[in-house]
Write a structure and sequence with these properties.
The relative contact order is 0.08. α2 packs antiparallel against α3. The protein has helices spanning 7-22, 26-38, 44-59, 64-78, 83-95, 99-112, 117-129, 133-146, 151-160, 165-168. Helices cover 76% and strands 0% of the residues. The protein is built from ten helices and no strands. By secondary structure, the chain is mainly alpha-helical. It is elongated.
């Protein structure tokens, strides 16, 4: 039984994730890292550590494409998915310069958690890296819709559209 708010249990799950990861058991390592997130303590720094641990497990996975296929199959069969897992997977793929795969994972995360601003920033960065400025601009507009009081976002939009007067209007 997973207990919420138990930092010690979260640490144990992180250690279990490390052990499975070292053995090349990606699914089990991710399950343990996910359990560490579920029972994390209320302290923000420990939550950040648990999320970073999940990313490390995914980054060290020898069979990440197979794990993504497993996630897709599980989501299709059960109808359940995880925004945290999809965002972490997308982040790792982005860090490995696998932008198209990252975009796919980040879009699933966006559908599951449409209010996650960091996810929009990651999508914009991936689209820009693939030279798909139009899609990046579309994501920026969605982010502005979500956070219309963030003035630097409008500055970014103006910079993106400076060579397109019709669109800028």
């Amino acid at each position: 039984e997973v207990v919420l708010g138990d930092a010690t249990l979260s640490d144990w799950y992180q250690n279990l994730a490390d052990a499975h990861s070292a053995l090349g058991h990606t699914k089990e390592a991710v399950d343990a890292a996910s359990a560490a997130i579920v029972c994390w303590s209320p302290r923000q720094n420990e939550r950040t550590i648990a999320l970073d641990h999940l990313k490390n497990v995914l980054s060290n996975a020898r069979d990440l494409p197979a794990f993504i296929k497993h996630l897709d199959e599980r989501a299709n069969i059960t109808g359940e998915d995880s925004a945290i897992l999809r965002k972490a997977t997308g982040s790792v793929l982005k860090d490995h310069n696998e932008y198209k795969s990252a975009i796919a994972q980040l879009h699933i995360a966006e559908q599951l958690e449409p209010n996650d601003k960091d996810n929009y920033h990651a999508l914009i960065a991936c689209y820009d890296a693939t030279q798909d400025k139009a899609s990046g601009t579309h994501q920026l507009l969605k982010l502005i819709e979500l956070d219309s009081h963030d003035l630097p976002l409008y500055q970014q939009l103006a910079d993106r559209l400076k060579d397109q007067p019709a669109e800028a209007e």
